[in-house]
Design goal:
heterodimer, A: mainly alpha, MetI-like fold, 2 domains, two-stranded antiparallel sheet, 13 helices, 66% helix, flat, disordered N terminus, B: D-Maltodextrin-Binding Protein, domain 2, D-Maltodextrin-Binding Protein, domain 2, 5-stranded mixed β-sheet, transmembrane helix (chain A), MetI-like (chain A), transport (chain A), cell membrane (chain A), ABC transporter permease (chain A)
Chain lengths: 329, 440
Amino acid sequence: MSTVANPNAPGTETTAGQRPPSGRRSAGPVLSDRARSERKLGWMLAGPAFVIMLLVTMYPILQALYDSMFSFRLTAPDEKSFVFLGNYATVLTDPVFLRDLWVTVLITIITVLVELVLGFALALVMNNAIRNTRGLLRTAILVPYGIITVVSAFAWFYAFDITTGYVNNWFSWVPGIGPDFNWFSSQWPALFVIMASEIWKTTPFISLLLLSGLAQVPSEYTEAAKVDGATWWQRMSRVILPNMKAAIMVAVVFRALDAFRIFDNIFIMTQGQYGTETLSLLAYRTSIGRLEIGLGSAVSVILFVCVLLIAFIAIKVFKVDLAGSGKGR
Amino acid sequence: MTTTSHAQQARGRGRRGTAAALGAVGALVLTGCGGADAGGTPTLTWYINPDAGGQAELAQQCTEQSGGRYRIETSLLPRDAASQREQLARRLAAGDSSMDIMSLDPPFIPELAEPGFLAAPPQEVVDATTQDVLDGPLEGARWNDELVTIPFWANTQLLWYRESVAEAAGLDMDRPVTWQQIMDAARRQDKYLGVQGTQGESMTVWVNGLVKSAGGEIIENPEAPADEISVGLDSEAGRQAAEIVGTIGRDGLGGPGLPTSDENASMIQFQSEQGSFMVNWPFIYAATAAAVEDGTVEASVYEDIGWALWPRVDADTPSAPPLGGINLGVGATSEHQDLAWEAVECIVQPENQAHYFVTNGNPAASEAAYEDPEVREAYPMYATIRESLDQAAPRPQTPFYNEVSTAIQQEWTPPASVTESTPRNTAEFIEAVLRGDRLL
């Protein structure tokens, strides 16, 4: 909007078709009266919703920023005091925060990588399936994604729990797994179950995104490569994957942002005990459990900045094209 | 014409629809926010912890007894004590005017009383409701030497044992036993001890019971401000407690499920072939009877269950069993405080406590309730419970209990990791957290 010439501004040419005069304010396309009035109508129609959305999203963020500057406990309202960036210093130098950040990054990297590989394999299966079975196949693959996360977390918990679980019996032939193996009593086995449940739940989402990317690769390209004698791997790495880069990156960004904010699975299965806590859980435990609004807000703001960073890196560094305009390729 | 008439009709329908919608919203607002029904009877909200329906039944009973002066509606809190505290604290801090009556876990009372979230009970209510309350529960109802809540029921842990195992181990259960004795017996019989080793409130209950039984205190000055609190864990009592927890964890005496075992999980293990001794609340007796009825536990298991006072740390010093229960508080922002106290007076009557004990398995705070023939018939261990309540020791009563408890949970789990240095590390950690230097 800022680049559109203002029709009421003195010295500005507004007639359609005229080259805009030089100067920063006039740079950009010249719009016809009709286009301008349509754009104005558009803003009038969408503006209120835009303003409300801005208020709804900005208010909690600004409130959290404000609260994070105070030492403020909900059950000691009289002892509220301004500490400026003191809470951030406490959080960023604390071993608990560093451990939780490490766990969060680890879960994000491993789950997204595994989901990407599995999701691509499933997308290939769906893409190459016989026309009659495609619908059924897609529905079957999507079932885990349709289950509410808390419900699937409980299902995984009860399957692996030492008192109610059946996994130890099923996999007793695997070395190290027996009736006495307690999956949730130490960090690595617990993280394994948490990540496996996360992968099981969200791989269908990635596979669906990748399937749409796969469907957009022109078949002429792959056929031409085939005729030229390219192997399956060459067709995949030189033709299909480069043409799907936008879809892959969108899938990675969406899932990475989701995985970084992981909460439900861990909350249900371990409550964050034995080194399975992530930043979301730390924010929850500090704000809601300890009722330390100041410290908890600082953790939440740091989590928010991390999410922004991931989105920024993906969009700017890896040039992810979220709008689908093709510029990101 | 036709178009205009359709348009008018549509507008008419639209207006009627809008009017109906506004009317419906208005009616909802009037009935929902008025706090009174059509007859003008004030509605009191009682936030209850989950039980077998006993509190809802008492709410109904007291509503009928009030003769139309008030009506009690129950609102269910989350299952675990920590989540109950979270919800109550958030609502109270927000000045929620529906906080008429609350079922409160004693260790969290100071945190809510200190900022003035709880209304002080009138003297006539105190006089009418605390005459025959046992000492332990009464102590847990105070903050800063003032009674801020009314005890409703009191809980304590017993030592439950399988008579066959105790007999095989040659233990005389009519005499007090020590932790060392039951650990040795479980080891020799190749059975598991029922203790709660998960990172939860139950771990603090266990550690507090052990430290108190050894003559120590987790917090030496619980009423002090955060930065002046002195943690007494780095003591001989703390080290004795660590020795017991660590040995049970490292030697596998609690079974493979120990690091994730809560009260329910340890009960299930106790009911299995590997069961031997278990420290747990009295609910397990009724729960085992129900499991027998459901066919999930054999009747022989139920018949094999015996009970005794909590194990001792030192053979010559009586144990200090964990104290629990529920007190009733009234919110300072309640719009019907007088009626709420009247309702509390009705709820905690000894005969109601006795009935609640029989039907829901939660022991009474009132001494008179233990004279009730129905209680004696339903709970043959009533005398042991009563004795245990007399000996029971509350958890540290400080507004920072949540911090203290969470720190203990983190440092003392998994039990196998507990060593001689754990009490000292825990003390340093708690003090750093309370000074605001460390995250939990």
